[in-house]
UniProtKB/TrEMBL annotation:
Keywords: Actin-binding, ATP-binding, Calmodulin-binding, Motor protein, Myosin, Nucleotide-binding. It comes from Stylosanthes scabra. Belongs to the TRAFAC class myosin-kinesin ATPase superfamily. Myosin family. It holds the Pfam family Myosin_N. It comes from the Eukaryota. ATP binds at G156, E157, S158, G159, A160, G161, K162, T163. InterPro entries: Kinesin_motor_dom_sf, Myosin_head_motor_dom-like, P-loop_NTPase, SH3_Myosin. Residues 8-57 form the Myosin N-terminal SH3-like domain. PROSITE patterns: MYOSIN_MOTOR, SH3_LIKE. This is Uncharacterized protein. Residues 62-443 form the Myosin motor domain. The keyword Metal-binding does not apply.
Length: 443
């Protein structure tokens, strides 16, 4: 932070700008705690000295590949360096052993081909240009040389590219760890093939990202004593359960709901579905489609991905029955009942949705569980009626719990398909941490 000591007349500084965050300029006058600055675009700005930062006038014009080399490691200095490198198509920059990636929002296949992997194999960290593969290579060699497990943390805002980064890291580890067997699909192929299934049930459109992971994922790549991949496991956590019942504009609920509503006519009829606008859990937002995404095609691709990861047709049918039941559950409405603080189903439409949801269980038991609650006492159980608001909360709680259990079941099924090595000597864990979004108001 700039202080009265190091900011003088003639100092080159960074000052906040409403348009481009920070702009550079020269201090022309200091008056008490304020400085007058002529910016590089010719504007005159008066700012508090405590809010301006010194600029490194000797920094290389092409930026530095490791930001620990910067004279000042402050926000404007870091952002300026990243912007310069990005303009030169350099999307990766180090800060010590941390790799910062700036999402180019386009495919750069040459950056991740086999030739690039061979270049980084065994190269000392920092010897070549900053790259994802350098981090993965250092991690793999540390595991081999130190006989200890390692972890790579992938963190950033929603849409920053964490999930794609995780895929690339796994590809490099597969390149280094060789093949665990020549027959059938390799472990890393199976992990990557599970992505479409996890994304269908764990990803959603948010304000900044059309395919945002709304859960955390820790992928354990397991290695044998020869450093070869011998198994894998996917651990998931912090699924955003609230999204099942509550969606704000212009976001969407989980992809699987829209896929199922766009399924072939025979499936739509079987699950008694239709236009997403008819369902309370989907119509709280006016966003039903995602640009460049065909939900009907995604449904068929998800079914295909389920086949690949070992979820059979009967299990797939059960999964989508649960997804459909949750949508019907959301359309059950309540009104005041005949007794005080009691509730009953609002109309025939609510009865239809209750019956459809209840095809998975017992209709009367489901109605009672929504409209009443049981209090366990030493003298026995007391059944207490719930008012319409409490019944609606009970309905939403059930929907969230069922969806969460379904997601956990799918993950367990994928893990049993991939195959875990209980005798693994060491693991490399890749943590794709939940993507948060930064707004002025963020609830």
């Amino acid at each position: 932070m700039g202080t009265p000591v190091n900011i003088i007349v003639g100092s080159h500084v960074w000052v906040e700008d409403p348009e481009i965050a920070w702009i550079d300029g020269e201090v022309t006058e200091i008056n008490g705690s304020n400085a007058t600055i002529i910016t590089s675009n010719g504007r005159t700005v008066v700012a508090e000295i405590s809010s301006i930062y010194p600029k490194d006038t000797e920094a290389p014009p092409a930026g530095v590949d490791d930001m620990t080399k910067l004279a000042y490691l402050h926000e404007p200095g870091v952002l300026h360096n990243l912007a310069i490198r990005f303009s030169l198509n350099e999307i990766y920059t180090y800060t010590g052993n941390i790799l910062i990636a700036v999402n180019p929002f386009r495919r750069l296949p040459h950056l991740y081909d086999i030739h690039m992997m061979q270049q980084y194999k065994g190269a000392a960290f920092g010897e070549l240009s900053p790259h994802l593969f350098a981090v993965a290579d250092t991690c793999y060699r540390a595991m081999i040389n130190e006989n200890g497990s390692q972890s790579i943390l992938v963190s950033g805002e929603s849409g920053a590219g964490k999930t794609e980064t995780t895929k690339m890291l796994m590809r490099y580890l597969a390149f280094m760890g060789g093949r665990s067997g020549t027959e059938g699909r390799t472990v890393e192929q199976q992990v990557l093939e599970s992505n479409p299934v996890l994304e269908a049930f764990g990803n959603a459109k948010t304000v900044k990202n059309n395919n945002s992971s709304r859960f955390g994922k820790f992928v354990e790549i397991q290695f044998d004593k020869n450093g070869k991949i011998s198994g894998a496991a996917i651990r998931t956590y912090l699924l955003e359960r609230s999204r099942v019942c509550q969606v704000s504009d212009p976001e969407r609920n989980y992809h699987c709901f829209y896929m199922l509503c766009s399924a072939p006519p025979e499936d739509v009829k079987k699950y008694k579905l239709g236009d997403p606008k008819q369902f309370h859990y989907l119509n709280q937002s006016n966003c039903y489609q995602v640009s460049n995404v065909d939900d009907a095609k995604e449904y068929l691709e998800t079914r295909n991905a389920m086949d690949i990861v070992g979820i059979n047709q009967e299990e797939q049918d059960a999964i989508f029955r649960v997804v459909a039941a949750i949508l019907h559950l959301g359309n059950i409405e309540f009104v005041k009942g005949n007794e005080v603080d009691s509730s009953k189903l609002k109309n025939e439409k609510s009865v239809f949705h209750l019956r459809t949801a209840a095809e998975l269980c017992d209709e009367k038991a489901l109605e009672d569980s929504l409209c009443k609650r049981v209090i366990v006492t030493p003298d026995g159980n007391i059944t207490k009626p719930l008012d319409p608001d409490a019944a609606s909360l009970s309905r939403d709680a059930l929907a969230k719990t069922v969806y969460s259990r379904l997601f956990d079941w799918i993950v367990d099924k994928i893990n049993s398909s991939i195959g875990q090595d209980s005798n693994a000597v060491s693991i490399i864990g890749v943590l794709d941490i939940y993507g948060f979004e930064s707004f002025k108001i963020n609830r």
